[in-house]
Amino acid sequence: MHRLNNYIARRLILSTALVLSVFVGLFLFFDLVTTLDHIHRGGFYRLFVILILGVPAKISMLFPMSALVGATLGLSSLAIDGELTAMRAAGISVGQIAYAALRAALALGLVAALLGDFLGPKAASLARREQAQAAGLGVAMNAQGLWLREGHSFVDIGEVLPDLSILRITIYRFQHGRLTHEMFAESGRYHHGRWRLRGVSETLFRKERLIVKTSKRGYWQGIAPSLLSVFAVNPHALSLVDLFRYIRHLQRNQQATAHYKLVFWYKILAPFTTAAMVLLAVPFVFRHGRHGGLGLRLFLAVVLGLVFYVVNRGFGDLTLLYHWPPMLGAMVPTLGLALICAGFIARAG
Fold first, then answer.
1. What whole-number distance in Å separates Cα of residue 283 and Cα of residue 294?
2. Which of 145, 168, 222, 233 has a CA 20 to 30 Å removed from the CA of 67?
């Protein structure tokens, strides 16, 4: 049985890797088409770097669907070759075959989750820097935020939120190589062509003295939000540790955290979601083994995967709308799919 488990796992891993490479290649092609018009500097080398840096995030995003289609392809090939029939004749139950597929799915899901959690955020950060430089922004990024140059001014932005508002802005203005004005603001929001700042503190550097002024509000005619969109905090691009820290940060600042908690639980449950998708392929292949060809089964697998994706995301949005616990929004669809698959496998066995 151990050898059979390894054989089934190897077939599923190879078919999933094939499907995943096709999906990632298609999405890279779409990115290439949409990015060509926005690349003004750096040429095709920088464009190639940006596309490659986006691969880890795409693998993490596309993996559950790839696992479903790959499992359907792998198990269907076994059915077409008569190997599944031989296994059943040798006394191997559908549940044992599903268990072998489940082991492979959990291992693949864990690898994909670790790849997306550790390599994905670093690659996304590098990609944002390359996109900014390609767009003509003089930018430097570090752990504390990002630096931008605008004419004779240098701007330090601590954080760009998803709604494109900004936190902890410091603007340094120079004249003839000398610092003349420093302005700090706790937050800013773009409104009618300019940034409305809150919690403003200004320091004017004169030859003989410093002038310090504070006010609740201020304005800045600065960089448009569209240029800062590549630096916005994307919860899906954060690692689990960074996402947890960011949730704590939002809680300390009394900001909404439900969306980020939902993404956090999506990431936690990603390997189990992948396993549930693979389990869906097992009764599907046995039930439709004699009805329709491989192409039809793959098409139905893609449709079922898309339906589950819509239901999964839609239920998550409902939890946000009705203020239900975010953990339920991520857990209920996956748990429901697993129970449905278990019922189908029990009937098929």
1. 15
2. 233
Q: Are residues 244 and 112 in the same domain?
A: yes
Domain range for 151:
140-222
- Report yes or no on 182 lying in a domain: yes
Q: Would you state the structure tokens that stand for residue 77, as one six-digit string?
A: 């090939």
State the Cα–Cα distance between residues 95 and 342, nearest whole angstrom: 9
Query: Which domain-ending residue is among 222, 247, 274?
Result: 222
Among the candidates 200, 222, 244, a domain finishes at 222
The predicted-structure confidence for 303-345, as pLDDT tens digits, reads as follows 888 899 899 999 999 999 999 999 999 999 999 999 988 888 8
**Reduced 3-state DSSP string for the chain:** CHHHHHHHHHHHHHHHHHHHHHHHHHHHHHHHHHHHHHCCCCHHHHHHHHHHHCHHHHHHHHHHHHHHHHHHHHHHHHHHCCHHHHHHHCCCCHHHHHHHHHHHHHHHHHHHHHHHHHHHHHHHHHHHHHHHHHCCCCEEEECCEEEEEECCEEEEEEEECCCCCEEEEEEEEEECCEEEEEEEEEEEEEECCEEEEEEEEEEEECCCCEEEEEEEEEEECCCCHHHHHHHCCCHHHCCHHHHHHHHHHHHHCCCCCHHHHHHHHHHHCHHHHHHHHHHHHHHHHHHCCCCCCHHHHHHHHHHHHHHHHHHHHHHHHHHHHCCCCHHHHHHHHHHHHHHHHHHHHHHHC
Domain presence at residue 156: yes
Put simply, whether the predicted model's pTM sits higher than 0.85 gets the answer no
pLDDT tens digits, one per residue of 85-112: 788 888 888 888 888 888 888 888 888 8
